[in-house]
Design brief:
The structure holds two protein chains of two kinds. Chain A contains 17 helices and 32 strands. Chain A is of the alpha+beta class. Chain A has three domains: 196 residues, Aldehyde oxidase/xanthine dehydrogenase, molybdopterin binding domain (Aldehyde Oxidoreductase, domain 4, 2-Layer Sandwich); 153 residues, Aldehyde Oxidoreductase, domain 4 (2-Layer Sandwich), CATH 3.30.365.10; 334 residues, Aldehyde Oxidoreductase, domain 4 (2-Layer Sandwich), CATH 3.30.365. The two termini of chain A are 47 Å apart. The chains are: A alpha+beta, B alpha+beta. The interface between A and B is large, with 61 and 58 residues. The complex binds FE2/S2 (inorganic) cluster (2 copies). One FE2/S2 (inorganic) cluster (FES) sits at the interface of chains B and A.
């Protein structure tokens, strides 16, 4: 993907009232479609920028906003290249139209890298046209004109014109080739790198109805949807007549579903004049379920099975470098341990919801989805409607964390709305619905063996990963990539796996795979460092070796960028230089994921009751040459640290008889304010690489940093998450 | 059953079952959607409003129990959106997704009304019931301190807001 030369095009038009409309896109041939070598669909021009004769500039935020700040960051790129006055910029959220805007998903920290080049070129081209319009008006060379804050200046004659005054004229000019237009030199950025007021901030602090859950239409009815507690179970019958007789209830019906919980699980829909009536009616609801084969699944059985499988040979190999067994046999020291981590839930604060209306054969959806394009396809298939007859509006969401990569709430709402033509319907899940019907971060079991030689060098590494899936096919987000660190850095390295079949839905959660693997890998590296009698930072620097890029393509790992992060975090945290208070310990971890390099150090104390206090965390990241909006960048990193702490201490989803045993935050706890470290110090290394996303990469290293700090503080190794299971709790 | 109460300074009457939670009366009967639904079980604090100045979880408060009472929501905290907390929240760019923030601000407003100079520990314990899933706690704490400072410097000013009282 990296090596593919991206080519862009531009379309310009005049709009009534003297406005200039500029759109751009990536040429179809160059568009990589995920997971295939086929070119993506043809791209039509998209309206990214509209400059009105009044000077107001409307920028389109095309990607879903869920708190990651993309609704501010992407327009900032355009506005900076355009030299616009941010005060005159209005940002509007685009509806779903991937033919027009290109990919509109949010996930994998991809929004920034996918749009950086395109938006810079669209902005720079628009600026060029306005300059040319001014130069023609004044009959001066364009090279003598400059721009600032939405105006073109000709300093020699003292003339200037606002972008609004030039819009109509610019619209009539020949369209420049965006591939030839030169974006700004980064030293000339006026907006990128500044913490501008975040779009929607005033609305958020005054309680404006900006979220998906707040969206209403006249005549709207409200729905709840009771699904079988056992995944993929089916509703056979229910006391619908009794339910329909309850106050406020308008409709109640069974939905057969299509056998795919990611699309439309079977259940009972109750529709009322107000949501509370619908939800209250559930207390009286009696459903006969056909629970199906998943009723036999339970976490206890999975854990027993994993221990049995550890006693057997792994089912298949994922990577084999050198001769691991020989290297282990001749190693000076061998460490042989097992790690376990649980299923966890996304638990984003705004529960699943979606509004839909079906009228005259057309379906309109208002959805809080991270992948609205996929949602449209799924609704089209589930409902048997042509995709062309479905419109999706993107709603601001109260957190995503990967939960809204799935579109189950969307298909459910669409299905219910289709049964009630002409009536807008809002589906809202309870917290219990949300937690019991998630696509969980899958748990896993790892048996690790590692060996160091007499010089303290890591020479052998073997991982038997017992995960979930069928045969050699992992369920979503449960795999270990063959290039996972320290692969390519240890001469004798084997990764093998055995999979346990599961019917529990799994899916990506913030930093998928990395959020569990980094904890296992860097805790184990710490164990090996201690076995080697080496300082944990020194041991890691030796492991990374000289600054260089190891591996190719998707497997490329820049040891130099990681070293720089590790060295800086060691320096900032005073690693090895400070005398720590009694009972305190420092721990370190690093991880590369989603194109970002992060190294983190935690300082913790543990008392004799195993009460843990995290005093401070230092995080150093390299996500390329620019941090577009530093304030939200730091916020993301600090949030990732807090999120990581929540995952460590108490979060666990357990399954019994095929159903989720946790239902609300009291059983799946997120960190509270008083448990948060008083300080989280964040540093960015601005390396000479294109900017990449920040939502995910800061999370994974936090877990091993804290676990290793606990070991440093009290000598106890955390090998099971959540660590409450090992008797730890927050001080 | 008709129930009368005062919401954000206005007398209102609603005809709903007595056990309907205040949260759903606010959101669906009175169209005040600033108060959020997160858990429905007094676990997250997203639904925090004031009843006669004290913070309550509206998701577990039956409407009958606030009959005749004064309820203040985020929409009524300040007529112009310029309560010191709202200003401080913007100054520190506190929110990520923002979904928890109305609840955080309402809890903090009740704290500052009682305690004009809270310590970190006072803030932590007042806001213990307010989850921020995005993890903006450090900025929330800073912003509460800043708001307290703004309120103290305003206290000689006759225009100072009385919200939360
Ligand atoms: S919604 Fe009321 S406390 Fe969570
Ligand atoms: S900002 Fe998202 S939950 Fe607090």
């Amino acid at each position: 993907m990296k090596s593919m030369k991206r080519r862009f095009f531009l379309r310009v038009s005049a709009v009534a009232g003297g406005a200039l409309l500029i759109g751009g896109g990536e040429e179809a041939a160059a568009q990589p479609t995920r997971g295939s070598r086929q070119p993506g669909p043809p791209i039509l021009p998209s309206a990214f920028v509209q400059i009105d004769s009044s000077g107001i500039i409307t920028l389109t935020a095309k990607n879903p906003e869920m708190g990651q700040g993309i609704k501010t960051a992407l327009p900032m790129i355009l506005a900076d290249e355009l030299d616009a006055d941010w005060k005159l910029v209005k940002v509007v959220q685009a509806d779903l139209n991937e033919a027009k805007y290109g990919s509109q998903s949010a996930g994998g920290s991809r929004s920034t890298p996918n749009n950086w080049d395109l938006l810079r070129r669209v902005g720079a081209s628009a600026r060029l046209m306005l300059v040319q319009a001014a130069a023609q008006t004044w009959n001066v060379p364009a090279t003598e004109c400059t721009t600032d804050l939405g105006r073109v200046y000709h300093r020699a004659s003292g003339k200037s014109l606002g972008y609004g005054e030039l819009a109509a004229k610019a619209a009539a000019l020949p369209v420049p080739d965006p591939n030839q237009v030169k974006p700004k030199d980064p030293k000339d950025y006026k907006l990128i790198g500044k913490s501008l007021p975040t779009v929607d901030l005033p609305a958020m602090v005054t309680g404006k109805p900006i979220y998906s859950i707040d969206f209403k239409l006249p005549g709207m009815l409200y729905a709840v949807y009771e699904k079988c507690p056992v995944f993929n179970g089916k509703a056979v019958s229910a006391n619908l007549d009794e339910i329909k007789a309850l106050p406020g209830i308008k409709h109640a019906f069974i939905v057969e579903g299509n056998g795919d919980v990611a699309s439309l699980a079977s259940g009972v829909a109750i529709v009322a004049t107000k949501w509370w009536y619908a939800n209250n009616a559930r207390k009286s609801l009696k459903v006969v379920w056909n629970e199906g084969p998943n009723a036999a699944h339970s976490s206890v059985v999975y854990a027993q099975k994993a221990q049995e499988l550890f006693a057997q040979k792994p089912a298949f190999a994922i990577r084999k470098d050198g001769d691991v067994e020989a290297a282990l046999a001749s190693a000076a020291k061998v460490v042989d341990v097992k790690y376990t981590f649980p299923f966890i839930s996304h638990a984003q604060l705004e529960p699943g919801n979606c509004a839909a209306k079906f009228e005259n054969g057309k379906l309109e959806i208002w959805a809080p989805s991270q992948t609205p394009g996929r949602g449209l396809q799924m609704a089209s298939q589930a409902l048997g409607l042509p995709a062309a007859d479905i419109v999706i509006h993107q709603m601001r969401t109260g957190g995503g964390f990967g939960r809204r990569l799935a579109n189950d709430y969307l298909v459910e709402a669409a299905w219910i709305a289709k049964q009630l033509p002409g009536i807008p319907v809002k589906l809202l899940w309870t917290r219990e619905d949300d937690m019991r019907h998630d696509f969980y971060r899958p748990g896993g079991f790892q048996h690790l063996r590692g060996g160091v030689d007499a010089a303290g060098k890591l020479v052998a590494w073997h991982d038997h990963f017992v995960s979930f899936g069928e045969g050699e096919k992992f369920v979503s987000s449960s795999n270990i990539p063959p290039a996972e660190f320290p692969a390519q850095f240890v001469p004798n390295l084997g990764i093998e796996a055995t999979l346990i079949p599961t019917g529990i839905p799994t899916g990506p959660l913030r930093a998928p795979r990395s959020n569990s693997l980094a904890w296992v890998i860097h805790s184990f590296i710490d164990e090996l460092a201690h076995a080697a009698g080496k300082d944990p930072v020194r041991f890691r620097l030796d492991l990374l070796g000289e600054p260089r890029v190891v591996g190719k393509g998707m497997e490329a790992y820049d040891a130099g960028r990681m070293r720089a992060c590790l060295e800086l975090v060691a320096e900032k945290s005073g690693w090895g230089k400070r005398t720590l208070p009694k009972g305190h310990g420092l721990g370190v971890g690093f991880h590369y994921s989603h194109s970002g390099y992060f190294a983190e150090v935690a300082e913790v104390s543990v008392d004799d009751q195993k009460r843990v206090k995290v005093h401070k965390v230092w995080a150093v990241g390299d996500v390329g040459s620019q941090i577009i909006h530093p304030s939200s960048g730091i916020n993301q990193v600090q949030g990732a640290v807090i999120d990581g702490l929540s995952e460590m201490m108490a979060q666990e989803i357990t399954i019994d008889k095929g159903r989720t045993m946790q239902s609300n935050y009291h059983q799946h706890q997120a960190l509270r304010m008083k448990q948060a470290p008083p300080e989280i110090e964040v540093h960015f290394i601005k390396s000479n690489h294109p900017p990449t996303g920040l939502g995910e990469p800061p999370l994974p290293p936090l877990l091993p940093a804290v676990a290793n700090a606990i070991f440093a503080a009290c000598g106890k190794r955390v090998r099971t998450l959540p660590m409450a299971k090992e008797g730890f709790r927050w001080a | 059953m008709e129930i009368r109460l005062n919401v954000n300074g206005k007398a209102v009457a609603v005809d709903v079952p007595p056990n309907m939670p205040l949260l759903w009366v606010l959101r669906d009967e009175l169209d005040q959607c600033g108060t959020k639904f997160g858990c429905g079980a007094a676990q997250c604090g997203a639904c925090t409003v004031h009843q006669d100045g004290a913070p309550i979880r509206s998701c577990v408060t039956p409407i009958s129990s606030v009959a005749g009472k004064k309820v203040t929501t985020i929409e009524g905290l300040s007529p112009t959106g310029s309560h010191p907390l709202q200003l401080a929240w913007q100054e520190f760019d506190v929110p990520q997704c923002g979904y928890c923030q109305a609840g955080q601000i309402m809890t903090a407003a009740a704290l500052l009304a009682k305690n004009p100079n809270p310590s970190d520990a006072d803030i932590d314990s007042a806001l213990d019931g307010n989850l921020c899933r995005c993890g903006t706690y450090l900025r929330i704490r800073q912003a509460v301190h800043r708001a307290a400072e703004l309120m103290r410097t305003q206290s000689s000013n006759p225009l100072r807001t009385t919200a939360g009282k």
